[in-house]
Amino acid sequence: MINIIKGDCIEQMKLLEENSVDAIVTDPPYGLEFMGKQWDKFGKGKNIA
């Protein structure tokens, strides 16, 4: 079963039952403007998709 949960991750994770999650897929975190694009680099200029 796939569930999509929208909301503040800290608050939403508090509502999950223990040992009930197999995987979490997220977008890059918000609020990284202070790093420019440094967070978007994977090693020697390779993009991983």
UniProtKB/TrEMBL annotation:
GO terms for biological process: methylation. SUPFAM superfamilies: S-adenosyl-L-methionine-dependent methyltransferases. GO terms for molecular function: methyltransferase activity; nucleic acid binding. InterPro entries: DNA_methylase_N6_adenine_CS (IPR002052), SAM-dependent_MTases_sf (IPR029063). Transmembrane segments: none annotated. Coiled coil: none annotated. This is DNA methylase N-4/N-6 domain-containing protein.
